[in-house]
Design goal:
Elements (H helix, E strand, L loop, with lengths): L3 H6 L17 H4 L4 E2 L5 E5 L6 E2 L1 E2 L6 E2 L6 E2 L5 E2 L7 E10 L7 E9 L19 H10 L12 H4 L8 E6 L8 H8 L1 H15 L3 E7 L3 H10 L6 E6 L8 H9 L14 E5 H13 L5 E7 L7 E6 L4 H7 L13 E2 L6 E2 L13 E3 L24 H5 L6 H9 L3 H6 L10 H5 L6 H59 L3 H32 L4 H35 L4 H8 L3 H10 L1 H27 L3 H58 L4 H13 L5 H17 L6 H39 L1
Parallel strand pairs: 1-15, 3-7, 10-11, 10-13, 11-12, 14-18
Antiparallel strand pairs: 2-9, 4-6, 5-8, 8-9, 14-15, 16-17, 16-18
The structure holds iron/sulfur cluster (2 copies).
One iron/sulfur cluster (SF4) binds next to helix 14 and helix 15.
């Protein structure tokens, strides 16, 4: 079977699917040498000109920088530095529109060129053999070199590949119409390009080096063949012109017949590809210590008087290049400017857009040359499902379905249709009869998917950080718990040791614990006393005791009363004393009664009430009863007061009854005396009967007196009887006896009533208690 090298040596190559043959239009610039332009007045240098992150700023506004001086620093592999393309002063660092299909703005350094073009100190390498591979890679990295074919991938990463490399492919195909920058570079600087290839050979040690150039660049092919004539390892491969033969996967398929599967990289097949411009830049960086500060740009189109390839400093605004190439002014219409070729390029929104590391062409077409660029409204119509787009797609995709899914923002469907394999070649749009700008839809969809992926990545990173923190906190918690457990075990072990110190400590701890327990117990009791209300049982016991004491006091009072009565009976006065006693006025007797018998009972009642009050106070003090209990105690006190009052009234009634009884007795005695006097007077004076009758009549006229009047009357008549016994008649004595009985009955009834009232009050108080 014919090997790859044999096929290449014989000029037999493979083909890739699809592809087109658009008008080349390379004649505009292919025969003109690369022009060195004058310095622009100002450069606008974007911080990010590659795939990856921008570097950290090393300069600030007002700084004067030298040519080749680093403006940013790459601190990780995906950060590629940028350098000052010439000497000058940093006038601004701000957002400015960059070379992007969406007209995106990015942070840019504005460098006011001083015109001196003063270089920083450079370290020229006379012999490549003096440098190690790592030193070479470091130089490439420090020079800020990124893929200059259009992708912009950091070159130092690509040349650090470890796996065995079968093929190092140098891409000089330059398949895009109009563009001749690589062609001219290979023609004019073939030795430098080959020196760059040698550096890559030193780093990657590939089995074969294939330099692929389309057959429409005969001068470049010749130049490279001459430069590599003595290098067996390097094969110059002249491939058929077909767009997009310069695509990475397409060129690999052309040269090796291998298809790089979807989602895989060439390095997985042992293949590394570099652009010829990148090889030139690597040589400049490693041998001449020249960072990537310029590149060859094809400024072309029929709208220019002088289309040509130029050495453009990175950061050069497009309008400066157009001035240098004499662009035609178009009346009443803005001149469309396309960055890149007609197939993969995009219209720039401003002529201030600067040249960057991946810019290889500025196309300024005329209206005749590219009428679609001047159309304000799209002529897009519905897809007719002709299938021409899929026929020409080099990535074997379904462009029409991709278009539908992109319009519907159905990202999952786009993923299934392998949108990521689309190389934005524009072949599908080129052949579309419906004039659908298919690549435009794909680019928008890719940007949205990229943004969504970045958000997902951020969310995933945040989730990982959260989980890691949670895990760390959990570990710290477990470690703390283990530490505490160990410390506790150590303390316990130390206490259990039978040393005198440990025993002493143990006993001291035990004593302390006992003290704490005792203190807690006493505090608990006090708290119970403070917080727990007196139980109803205790309260009822206290009340019962109080009642008992009251009953005892009442019994004592009754006994005293009984004793007093007995003494009064014993001390019953003689008839003369009784009479004199009887003859005392009622107020005097009441006063005497009030000051004699009741005073003893009242005193005892007071004592009993005081005892009850003291008990209640003691109870209240000891238990600090609640408000309801206080009310109860107050009730008890009130009861004692009421009882005292009742007793007082009771005694008064009893005294009144006793007075009435005494009065009745006195009257009975007076009656008996009067009877005896009458019998005596009858015996002594039989003729005095008329006078007695008058006296009786007079007495009878004084009927219906009040009780006091009756008593006064009784007293007066008694006096009269004493002074003049002849006047007392039998009728008047009977009337007095009757009255005194009535008075006694009234007094008894009053006493009973008061007793009843007193007993009912006492009962009510007991119920309320
Ligand atoms: S070429 Fe255009 S019209 Fe034809 S299928 Fe593709 S998108 Fe539709
Ligand atoms: S732009 Fe994409 S879909 Fe269209 S032909 Fe090229 S690779 Fe295929």
């Amino acid at each position: 079977m014919e090997s790859i090298i044999e096929r290449i040596t014989r000029g037999h190559f493979w083909d890739f699917h699809g592809g087109i043959h658009p008008p080349e239009q390379k004649f505009l610039t292919a025969s003109k040498p690369i022009k060195q332009l004058t310095l622009p007045k100002q450069l606008i240098i974007p911080l990010q000109q590659h795939i990856g992150r921008e570097g950290d700023l090393l300069v600030s506004i007002g700084d004067h920088v030298l040519k080749g001086q680093a403006l940013t620093l790459g601190t990780n592999p995906m950060m590629v530095p940028i350098h000052a393309p010439t000497s000058g002063t940093i006038s601004a660092i701000k957002l400015s529109v960059i070379a992007h299909p969406s007209g995106l703005s990015q942070l840019c350094i504005f460098l006011d060129v001083d015109g001196e073009d003063t270089w920083r100190k450079r370290d020229i390498c006379p012999d490549l053999g003096l440098l190690s591979n790592s030193e070479i890679i470091e130089k490439i990295s420090d020079a800020g070199i990124a893929g200059m074919g259009g992708a912009g991938f950091p070159t130092h990463i690509k040349v650090s590949s470890k796996p065995d490399i079968n093929f190092l492919i140098i891409n000089g195909a330059e398949c895009e119409p109009y563009i001749t920058a690589d062609d001219l570079l290979m023609m004019e600087h073939s030795d430098a390009v080959v020196d760059g290839i040698k550096i890559l050979d030193k780093l990657l040690k590939p089995a074969f080096i294939l330099v692929a150039i389309e057959d429409n660049k005969p001068k470049a092919i010749k130049a490279i063949q001459q430069a590599t004539a003595n290098i067996e390892k390097i094969k110059v491969c002249v491939v058929p012109t077909k767009y997009p033969a310069g695509g990475e996967k397409q060129l690999i398929q052309i040269l090796t017949g291998q298809e790089v599967a979807s989602g895989r990289l060439p390095i997985h097949s042992g293949i590394v590809m570099q652009n010829v411009a990148t090889c030139f830049a690597i040589n400049e960086a490693v041998r001449h210590d020249t960072p990537l500060i310029r590149r060859v740009v094809t400024v072309t189109g029929q709208a220019l008087d002088k289309p040509q390839n130029v050495w453009a400093l990175l950061g050069t605004p497009i309008n400066f290049l157009l001035e240098q190439c004499h662009v035609h002014a178009i009346e009443n219409q803005k001149q469309p400017v396309i960055m890149g070729g007609p197939m993969m390029g995009f219209s720039v929104s401003s002529e201030l857009v600067p040249i960057v590391k991946t810019s290889n062409c500025i196309l300024v077409p005329s209206k005749v040359e590219m009428p679609s660029a001047f159309e304000k409204e799209s002529k897009e119509v519905e897809c007719i499902r002709c299938g021409q787009c899929s026929d020409v797609c080099p990535s074997q995709l379904l462009p029409q379905e991709l278009q539908w899914s992109a319009k519907a923002k159905d990202y999952s469907q786009l993923e299934k249709l392998n949108l990521r394999d689309c190389i934005d070649c524009g072949a599908c749009a080129y052949v579309c009869p419906s004039q659908i700008p298919l690549v435009h839809y794909y680019r928008i969809a890719k940007a949205e998917i990229r943004e969504q992926q970045q958000l997902d990545l951020k969310a995933e990173k945040a989730k990982v950080r959260f989980e890691a923190r949670k895990l760390r906190l959990e570990k710290e918690k477990i470690a703390r718990q283990e530490k505490h457990k160990k410390a506790a075990a150590a303390r316990k072990a130390a206490m259990n040791k039978a040393t005198p110190e440990a025993t002493g400590a143990k006993s001291a701890v035990a004593a302390a614990l006992a003290r704490v327990k005792a203190k807690k117990a006493s505090q608990g009791l006090a708290q119970n006393r403070d917080n727990t209300p007196t139980s109803p049982a205790d309260l009822s016991t206290d009340i019962a005791d109080d009642q008992k004491s009251q009953v005892s006091a009442a019994i004592a009072r009754a006994k005293a009363k009984k004793k007093l009565k007995a003494e009064a009976a014993n001390k019953a006065p003689s008839s003369s004393e009784s009479v004199s006693e009887t003859l005392k006025s009622k107020p005097e007797k009441e006063q005497e009664a009030a000051t004699q018998q009741p005073s003893v009972g009242d005193k005892k009642a007071k004592i009993a009430a005081a005892i009850a009050k003291a008990k209640a106070k003691k109870l209240a003090k000891s238990t600090e009863i609640t408000e309801s209990d206080k009310a109860t105690v107050n009730c008890i006190s009130e009861k004692a007061v009421v009882e005292k009052a009742v007793n007082t009234d009771d005694k008064k009634a009893r005294v009144a009854a006793a007075i009435a009884k005494a009065k009745a007795k006195n009257k009975a005695l007076a009656k008996a005396n009067a009877k005896a006097v009458d019998e005596q007077s009858i015996e002594t004076n039989e003729s005095s009967a008329d006078g007695n009758s008058n006296s009786t009549k007079t007495d009878g006229n004084s009927s219906q007196p009040s009780q006091v009047a009756q008593e006064n009357t009784v007293a007066n008549k008694t006096d009269n009887i004493s002074s003049n016994p002849s006047l007392a008649g039998s009728k008047s004595n009977a009337a007095m006896d009757k009255k005194s009985k009535i008075a006694a009955a009234i007094a008894k009834a009053k006493a009973k009533k008061k007793l009843k009232e007193a007993s009912s009050i006492e009962k009510t108080d007991q119920d309320s208690v």
